Amino acid sequence: MPNTIKVLVVDDSSLFREMIIQHLSSQSGIEIVGYAINAYDAKRKIPLLKPTVLTLDVEMPGLNGIEFLKQLLPETPIPVVLVSSLNLSVFDALSAGAVDFVRKPDMSMANSKENFFRSLVTKVRAASLAKVRVPGQNAAAPGFLNSRAQMRSPAPAASQQQGAVKPMPFPPLSRNVLDSTIIGIGASTGGTEATLAVLQKLPANVPGIVITQHMPEGFTAMYAQRLDRICSMEVREAQNGDTIRPGLALIAPGGKQMEVVRSGREYIVQCRPGAKVSGHSPSVDVLFSSIAQNVTINKVGIIMTGMGRDGADGLLKMRQKGAFTIGQDKESCIVYGMPMVAYNIGAVCTQASCDNIPSVLMNHLKK
After folding, report:
1. Which listed residue (84, 119, 188, 232) is catalytic?
2. Are 85 and 104 in contact (CB under 8 A)?
3. Which segments of the chain have a pLDDT < 50?
4. Looking at residue 111, what is its pLDDT?
5. 310 is catalytic
6. Cα–Cα distance for residue pair 301/211, rounded to 1 Å
7. Single pTM value for the model
8. I need a surface site. Which of 71, 89, 171, 343 has the fewest CB within 10 A?
9. What angle do CA 187, 23, 26 make, to 5 degrees?
10. Catalytic: which of 128, 214, 285, 329?
11. Would you state the pLDDT for residue 137?
12. Which of 212, 280, 251, 221 is nearest to 86 (CA)?
């Protein structure tokens, strides 16, 4: 089969290896070409088996997944889906060039394995279509240059680290612009690093930002903490009732839908458990649609890399209500899915690379 996705499973746990192999083997269009018990085993087998996608355990004895990626991807840029427990190391691995990740299931919970397998299949299929970004080799996506040293440092020190991206020297925005604008950002596959690449170039004084990134419960809080250490503005996981204000970026919590609503003279976020919309919770469509419906001040919508179409319809509603909308361009996307659909249905005012989105945004706000 010419379009078969050939998968190599890399995991030191025989239990998880067998679970992954058994389930992926049952999916049409996916073939397991082999497995590796550690990174050294994988390095030997990749040239022989020529997989199109790797599933990779992050925490392995000997050479861990992060160091393995740093050695592998510059020579063999293959899409990698991480299989990880709730651990900050997943963001190190994404920064090292992995495409996406799946949270390991809680074996004591009945539906945990089912959700894990569903997510794994979806992300393996998405990874097979993804571009691989090798840190330090892609000038169009400077956000992929962050190091673990930067992650551990507080924000002021991080900007001094080698490879860090300093905020661009934009002229300050007026108080009126800061108080009368809300920015919505939505992303999926590849979006953790792409969103970081945009936010870390923006100054501290920007209009309030609300972000939906497809990510499991637990990881969104760690992701927000990571961005807060690196970016100039404050970044945190949203809580129900949080006020949207200048200098603050709120990230939708995993497993909950986030909407923007009016509360007196302010705008706040509502974060509630809810059914998946467009296949996701949180959903970009839910966020963007709420901005279109409830926000009467200036609106900006930015749709970034990701598989599928979540966010496209919501972004169209925003544009129809007068919002300025930006879509990440094909060349800089890990997966040109969500931004492509949004562009094709007329939801995008302008397309820009991940590198240029901050300038396009700030130039619009200055007007």
Report:
1. 188
2. yes
3. 1, 138-163
4. 77
5. yes
6. 10
7. 0.89
8. 171
9. 105
10. 214
11. 59
12. 221
Please provide residue 100's backbone torsions phi and psi, each rounded to the nearest 5 degrees: -160, 180
Q: How is residue 135 written in tokens?
A: 């840190």
Cα–Cα distance list, 348 to 274, 277, 289 (Å): 28, 21, 15
364 catalytic? Reply is no
* DSSP states along 128-183: HTPPPPPTTS-TT-GGGG--HHHHHS-HHHHTTSTT--PPP-PPPPPHHHHHTEEE
pLDDT for the residue numbered 85: 84
Above pLDDT 70, what percent of the chain? 90
The answer to whether the Cα torsion of 296, 244, 141, 99 is positive or negative is negative
Q: What is the pLDDT of residues 316-367, one digit of tens each?
A: 999 999 999 999 999 999 999 999 999 999 999 999 999 999 999 999 999 8
- How many other C-beta atoms are found inside a 10 Å radius of the C-beta of residue 331? 12
Residue type, 87: N
Q: The tokens 């979806």 sit on which residue?
A: 122
Helices 284-294 and 312-320 cross at an angle (nearest 10°) of: 10
Those residues with Cβ within 8 angstroms of residue 300's Cβ, 6 or more apart along the chain or in another chain: 181, 182, 183, 184, 207, 323, 324, 325, 326, 361, 364, 365
**Is 285 assigned a catalytic role?**
no
CA atoms of 93 and 44, how far apart (whole Å):
21
Helix orientation angle between 39-49 and 65-72, rounded to the nearest 10 degrees: 40
Instruction: State both tokens at 45.
Output: 């087998």
- Closest to 227 measured CA to CA, from 204, 254, 272, 195: 195
Which residue of the set 57, 100, 310, 329 is catalytic?
Answer: 310
Residue 134 CA, chain-centre distance (Å), reads 16
Q: Strands (DSSP E) along the chain, which ranges?
A: 5-10, 30-36, 53-57, 80-84, 100-103, 181-187, 208-213, 234-237, 248-251, 256-263, 266-273, 298-303, 324-328, 350-352
| C-alpha–C-alpha distance, residues 98 and 1, integer Å | 26
**Token code pair at residue 28:** 């049409």
- Laid out side by side, the sheet with 53-57 consists of 30-36, 5-10, 53-57, 80-84, 100-103
Of 200, 205, 217, residue with least CA distance to 251: 217
245 token code pair: 């204000």
